[in-house]
Structures are given as C-alpha cells and as structure tokens.
Amino acid sequence: MKKIKVSVNGIVHEAQVEANETLLDLLRDRLNLKETKAGCLGGECGACTVLLNGKAVNSCLILAAETDGSDITTVKGLSMENRLHPLQQAFVNEGAVECGFCTPGFILTALSYLKENPKPSIPEIKEAVAGNLCRCTGYQNIIKAISEASKGKYGEII
User: Fold this and answer.
1) What's the pLDDT score for residue 80?
2) 32 alpha-carbon distance from chain centroid
3) Distance CA 147, CA 120 (A)
4) Which of 115, 104, 52 is nearest to 76 (CA)?
5) 28 CB contacts (<8 Å, ≥6 apart)?
6) What share of the chain is helix, strand, coil (3-state, %, to 5)?
7) What is the C-alpha separation between 30 and 3, in angstroms, rounded?
8) Where are the alpha helices (DSSP H) in 75-121?
9) For residue range 59-73, what is the model confidence (pLDDT) as tens digits?
C-alpha cells in the first residue's frame, strides 16, 4: 500500500492504493468518477483517456501509485460554470456523440493534441485520435467536431 495525494478536476484527494491498482481503478472505483470509461483495459481503445498533468494518457495503463502529486482531469473537469467546454460543445453540435462511451476519451485526446497543434489539418487530426476507437459514428463527425473546434467556432479551446 502507498499513500498518494492527487488533484482530480481541481479537488485534492488522498488515498491508500495497492501496488497493482491503476489510475482507472482509482478514478472509477474509489472516487466514483464513472465518466472515465473502462473499455479494453489494455490501452487499445482510448475510452479511459484522462489528462495527467495536461497530457492524454490511458488510465488503464498507469499505476495509481505513480500519480502521486499529479493533476488529473476527466471530461467532467472541462466544463466551466455549468457550461460545456468548447470542445464538448463541438461534439454535441456536430453530431459526434452517439452512444457516448468513447466520447470522453476522444475529447481529452483531442484537447491534449490541440494544445500542441492548435490549427491541425484533417489528416493530422485523424492521426492524433488514431488510438481512440468508436463503434458507432464512423469517425466523420468526430473529426469534423475537432476541426471546427480548432477553428474557434465554439469558443477558445485552451
């Protein structure tokens, strides 16, 4: 067991974690943050993506003990004053949400990428989100939502 302290969506949490406990386990099971989805549990689908110190990571592949002192953001942490983040709004307005299971992972992956490349081309967006799987949409509206958001259509991304 290891005692850790992390900030999740701006709230500091302390927990005793097992050596083999993942960040996904901590978020879903201990902190009850179900918006972080448990998909493949092997880093193949991107459903569990969160921002760890501003970078997109698969939380199923990160040990909770390794996150001591870190800042973690889930998709819930993006909304401001009961308003959706511009990237979240783009997903809604552009029809990029169907069942919604993959949506948090796509949004956080896209946000991390847009911080590095705020004006990406369509091929660059496709490459950036290649590690995220969707079984419903066919990806066109997801790519369009990210592209439109990057153009500022829904407000300032970063």
Assistant:
1) 85
2) 16
3) 7
4) 104
5) 34, 36, 38
6) 35, 20, 45
7) 14
8) 86-93, 103-116
9) 999 999 999 999 999
Q: 92: which 2 tokens?
A: 């809604």
All domains in the chain, ordered by first residue: 2-75 (3.10.20.30), 79-150 (1.10.150.120)
Residue 37 structure tokens: 């989805």
Instruction: Enumerate residues 6+ apart whose C-beta is below 8 A from 37.
Output: 47, 48, 101, 102, 104, 105
Q: Where are the alpha helices (DSSP H) in 2-128?
A: 23-25, 86-93, 103-116, 122-128
Give the number of residues written for the chain: 158
Taking only the tens place, the pLDDT of each residue in 17-39 is 999 999 999 999 999 999 999 99
* pLDDT mean by block of 10 residues, the chain; 158 residues: 97 97 98 96 97 98 98 95 94 95 97 97 98 92 97 90
Token digits of residue 104:
């948090």
Residue partners of 119: CB distance under 8 A and separation at least 6: 150, 151
Q: Could you tell me the two tokens for 98?
A: 């169907």
